Amino acid sequence: MSQVLRTLRPPRRKGLWLSLAAVLALIAASAVWLSYVRSAARFNEYPMLVKTDIPTAIDVAPNGVIWFAIEFSNAVGMFENGGIRRIRKRDPNLEVLGLAADNAGRVWVTDTTARAISRISADGEVRSFPLSTPIVRLGRLAVAPDDAVWFTDSLMASVTRLQNGVFTTYSMDQQGATPYGIALDRGGNVWTTLQGPDKLGRISKRGEVTTFDIPTRNSGLGDLTIDPSGAVWFLELRVNKVGRFAEGRFAEFEVPTHSAGLASLAAAPDGSLWFTELGAGKLGRIKNGQVSEYSLPRAGSRPFGVAVDTSNVVWYTDLSGWLGRLIVSR
Fold it and tell me: Is residue 188 within 8 Å of residue 202, measured between CB atoms?
């Protein structure tokens, strides 16, 4: 028996060392992988000039200026030449969800307290276009190549165009329709998310309205954008997914982090799709069908708005009082 034990002990010791070596190799590989991920993503963050400022919607102008809304203030923000500026407006901001820059580098915003759509220039000029309805609940806003401004109003269940000072309204004739996200494709069609019936809505250049059913019911549609290929991307808030609609077909991508709190999304020139995870403190990316996540550098971060510039640099707003930039090299 003792001879058998002596014979068996060396292999056991050898097996133990092999297991330990495997664990060490796994740790080393993990360290290399983490180093690789960190080197591939670089964050820069800039604090708000006023401590109580809450940045929300964001866009990149053609001239490279970063514009963003500031909640509970009477100003909008802009980032240029490495610094933040505040530009005052007449009315206080309340739930400024719609913001987009035009070809001249000016920014357009949904101005709920003034019941208007306002245009603000870098030199501080503000011009407002009052709406005719006494109560509004404005969602997202987009600017077309011809500088027509499009925006959604969930209370009126409509999508409206503002061009040359004239409003043209399109009713979304769907039961319980509450339009929210909005974007324009290269053909001049306007797309929107209809939150109540879980549909995508499309308004053609001739004003014809068509709707498309989302595969996942009760998905809670949110923001919407269109990538350079013409694919329509949208958030599905309740089911923690990002959807894609192209060539008559839907695809859905699950977000790895449970209950991420999807808030906004933006398409990059390189074809990738970026989104914010308000509840998880992360930015997400879909590229070549793969979903990746990037944790913001500060604990308690609350990323809300996101935009991507012509160099594929990602800009985001953090409700805790920061403007951020993410450069991903891979």
Answer: no
CATH superfamily of 44-328: YVTN repeat-like/Quinoprotein amine dehydrogenase (2.130.10.10)
Residues 33 and 30: their CA atoms lie apart, in Å, by 5
In what side-by-side order are the strands of the sheet with 249-254?
Answer: 221-226, 232-236, 241-246, 249-254
Phi, psi (degrees; rounded to nearest 5) at 165: 80, 5
Helix (H, G, I), strand (E, B) or coil at 11: helix
pLDDT tens digits for range 195-216: 989 999 999 999 999 999 999 9
* Mean pLDDT, each 10-residue run in order, the chain (330 residues): 36 49 45 45 96 97 97 95 94 92 97 93 96 88 96 93 96 84 96 94 94 94 97 98 97 98 98 98 97 97 98 98 94
If one counts every other C-beta atom within 10 angstroms of the C-beta of residue 247, the result is 7
Cα gap 276→294, rounded to integer Å:
10
pLDDT tens for residues 256-285?
999 999 999 999 999 999 999 999 999 999
Alpha-carbon gap, residue 105 to 96, rounded angstroms: 19
Q: Give the pLDDT score at 135.
A: 79
- The three-state secondary structure class of 318 is strand
Question: 151-157: long-range contacts (C-beta < 8 A, 24 or more apart)?
Answer: 151/98, 151/110, 151/117, 151/182, 152/98, 152/179, 152/180, 152/181, 152/182, 152/192, 153/179, 154/178, 154/179, 154/180, 154/195
- Please state the domain extents for the chain: 44-328
Question: C-alpha angle with apex 39: 261 to 297, nearest 5 degrees?
Answer: 40
